[in-house]
Give the backbone structure.
Amino acid sequence: MNSINNDSILFDEISKLIEQSRKAIYKQASATTVLLFWKIGQCINCDILENKRADFGKQIVSQLATQLATKYGRSFELRNVRRMMQFAEQFPDFKIVSPSATQLSWAHIVEILPLKTIDAKLFYLNEASQGLIGRDKLREMIYRKTYERREIANTQITDTDHIPLNVFKDPYLFDILGLKDEYLEADLEDAILRELEKFILEFGKGFAFVERQKRMIIDGADHRLDLLFFNRNLKRLVAIELKQGKFEASHSGQMKLYLKWLNRYERQEDENEPIGLILCASGNNREQIELLEMDKDGILVAEYWTTLPPKAEFEQKIQAILAETKERLLQRKLLITEENNKNIKITKDN
């Protein structure tokens, strides 16, 4: 009997070694492939540019791809060779993209090539490499405009000492929770807890659920926080309040009170100060939110959608919100600059 058990243990140990080695080989092969494809793209781009053969570029690339595919297989067909050229053109210095790209497969790289900005491309590559997510999940993140929604949330943050950048999004997409057209806040809480894994995926890495309807006794009165999470990466408690309507100024005072209580009674010695997120069903009060500068108290407000619009409408809405928030951010910076210039002039005059 012992001999059989020992044989089983030995088999398991060897199997583990084989699986680990296979993963290491696959990872190394992927990194080598990504670098190779970048070098091929760079080589072709440089040849066409340096030899001033742009007019014949299409013909040259097509002929080259046919030769390469014949000798080395389908990976070198015209469509993929053009992607290699795009990759090298978008990232002329491989060192910029290397930390993320070499942790991923070529399939990941292909997904980010059509994106409009380098910042967006690097963001998604970084998210994919840190989270070790596959191509399908990366594609979903891109489809759901994760980068743009974080950019919108970041425009609320004027003081990163209280809320770090890239922690929250705006809006949050809760179509994953399967809510009906009419629902109560309690229904939303139930749905979040029922689909907790999907909810945390939408929120991002590092979030862990702590408690629902967190009880706080203040001046003898009961107060209830809708949801309490802990972010392992930030080492902070994250308080979440759900509101069915528009944001109101009173929501800020309520959340500020909850954060002060959590900071006094729940925060551990090695933790940072708690931060709060107020999730509202409508985000039409964005100017009011901006004026209150709640980020200085560790509070951010975001909209949530329970249904995802059709792709074209969704993209239009997100781009409109992003453009609006960036315009307000620019106006705010201009006002601050004007105020600073006035103060400098007054100081000089005195």
In short: The chain has a mean pLDDT of 85. The first strand starts at residue 172 and ends at 173.
